[in-house]
Amino acid sequence: MLKVLKFGGTSVGTLERIQNVANIIKKIKDEGHDVIAVVSAMSGETNKLLEYAANFSNNPEANEIDMLLSSGERVTSALLSIALNEQGYKATSMSGREAGIVTDNAHTKARIESIDTTNMKNALNDGKVIIVAGFQGVTEDSKRVSTLGRGGSDLTAVAIAGAIEADVCEIYTDVDGIYTTDPRIEPRAKKLDKISYDEMLELASLGAKVLQNRSVEMAKKLNVNLVSRSSFTPEVEGTLITKEENIMEKPVVSGIALDRNQVRVGMYGVIDRPGIASSIFTALADANINVDMIVQTRGLDGTTDLDFTIPRTDWEDCKKVMEKFKTETKNIDYNDTICKVSIVGVGMKSHTGVASKAFSALANENINIRIISTSEIKISMVVEEKYAELAVRALHDAYNLDK
Amino acid sequence: MLKVLKFGGTSVGTLERIQNVANIIKKIKDEGHDVIAVVSAMSGETNKLLEYAANFSNNPEANEIDMLLSSGERVTSALLSIALNEQGYKATSMSGREAGIVTDNAHTKARIESIDTTNMKNALNDGKVIIVAGFQGVTEDSKRVSTLGRGGSDLTAVAIAGAIEADVCEIYTDVDGIYTTDPRIEPRAKKLDKISYDEMLELASLGAKVLQNRSVEMAKKLNVNLVSRSSFTPEVEGTLITKEENIMEKPVVSGIALDRNQVRVGMYGVIDRPGIASSIFTALADANINVDMIVQTRGLDGTTDLDFTIPRTDWEDCKKVMEKFKTETKNIDYNDTICKVSIVGVGMKSHTGVASKAFSALANENINIRIISTSEIKISMVVEEKYAELAVRALHDAYNLDK
């Protein structure tokens, strides 16, 4: 098998940990696989360099930031290659440029445009382990070094796995996979063996520490089998994120996600003229505010009540937009003591009674549901924040996720 | 004027010092000059990375060391460019690759083969200050990053200055020029305004901290006007190292150099067969031992005495070679309590009595001269090490170098 592995900043955070990563790679090589490892900068390194830059400018040029930051991954890749060669495993580091990664010109948040795998294929044919400096490429136009922004090394790994048609792309972090829910809330949470791309995207909060949606989306698009596992317990099999067809037994519910970073916006007594809802949500979209759950109910006097949630970070922007609709609304209020719990599972599509089980589970605990929204594979409910953990545990229990 | 500036590790050792370098460049730009600045890694950075590598291997691959070490200069170049842009000076960093520097394939001690100045010329035409990451290029064959070894950033600066036909190449360190002798020995030592390449090469020990012979040799070959000056006192004019023709008033003696790292080898009663001296010095050359001063005198019984000096670092190797000649020699002894003082000056060529003035100056101080050797522009004398400082001061005084 050809395996693309990715080791994040924590996994390569010290010289001992880099040696540990070398040991993981050796074991995989000994099992007869070909290996391309993508590495991040040692943890803390990127922030240190950003602080250096901030010392000189509040607004440094993006292409200089890329020149600056790309050095961190190069250091890790060289060190890991040295460690492997020392143990008799032929290895070679590659910068993003050498790995053939070409991006657009959006420095510090570049998108990968293409990967020329010639160099990597030649090295693999020579029996070499390839250590790619993650997070970077070169721009198509000026051939300057570019970086891919947050989660960039994951993207590097997934994109390489797609371009070179690797059998699997393993993302190593300090967490050994995706759990049915946050184990800090429900200690009986179980690690999932497999999960579909779409479920993973909906369970984003459960993977927040280990996988970014941008990477999962790219894996889905490129049909890359993604594995989330830990470099600290490499003996533990992680969670495979793959396409739905690859999952034989589809659980009705795969996991329970919790999002505490939502604010509920209530617009009461909105004058019910045609297109009012449309103009409100268009204005919010124009301000780049990510509206999540929407409920419209008929209020008194032929007016309408609108309830929706937004990320807490968009709150101030939302207030500005709401100013425009003040005259058409009796009252607008905000509630940030709410949270969103979601039930996710591909099996929902073919099962009935999933939602009602959730509602009764919460009702049994006397938890009031403020807003409900459903999609093909997800049911989300807004409840008071003080019930967050209780709601998660009740739902985890209702669907027997600890079994 | 087009000026190439080079700032070493100490000059860019902290963020404050990088800001100081930005100020120096700004002032030169304000005076109407074009600037290409070559920078080293922040001091300590390269050693830190080498220690990291040593943690994994005693014999790391040279090309991986280059990948590792080249990151340090990239960081400095980006930071300096950010600092300049922030102050409204258009600047761009360039890696060795971007600066067009192509080397041979001898990783960690590569030699510059060619410089394609297109990229730099375009940036200069755009009115930009160019900040080149020193010490690095890319190999001709595999296009991998390579480093130039010790003093590599100086070489980068001199080679760029030669290739782009700069008017001057200023090497900034923490020393403000070349002195007539070591000021720690003779406080009355004076900074030289000008000195020829050949004198500088002979006075290597006086420039040891600021200029390496490899750079001076390249400057001579490429006809680059080299200036040694300090980034800590940029208002002080440094010392210009240039070709002899550019120096109108040629001093008889420019400076007094001292070398304490020599060992005197004495071979007494060498059987005087034809070719014996030749076979001894051939054997030493084959062992890469740098023999400096040689004196042959007739000993007793038709035998020969041979006296010569070698660098202290070659002592052990020399002893091994001497083993082979044991049977042809009555006695071989070594003396490391000696030193070599040298008088250097291009004016010597056209003046007589220079040597005799040196001999009487030392005689007046009762300093015995063990070996003498002379070249066109240098007179070297081996004396007992305890007289080192006294000999330097006596000679400095004899030639009125403090005037």
TrEMBL record, chains A, B:
Task: Report the residue ranges that make up the ACT domain in this protein.
Answer: 265-346
Q: Name one GO molecular function term.
A: ATP binding
Q: What InterPro entries does this protein map onto? A: AceGlu_kinase-like_sf, ACT-like_dom_sf, ACT_Aspartokinase, ACT_dom, AKii-LysC-BS, Asp/Glu/Uridylate_kinase, Asp_kin_monofn, Asp_kinase
EC number(s) recorded for this UniProt protein: 2.7.2.4
Q: Name one GO cellular component term.
A: cytosol
Pathway involvement of the protein, from the record: Amino-acid biosynthesis; L-threonine biosynthesis; L-threonine from L-aspartate: step 1/5; Amino-acid biosynthesis; L-lysine biosynthesis via DAP pathway; (S)-tetrahydrodipicolinate from L-aspartate: step 1/4; Amino-acid biosynthesis; L-methionine biosynthesis via de novo pathway; L-homoserine from L-aspartate: step 1/3
- Protein name as catalogued: Aspartokinase
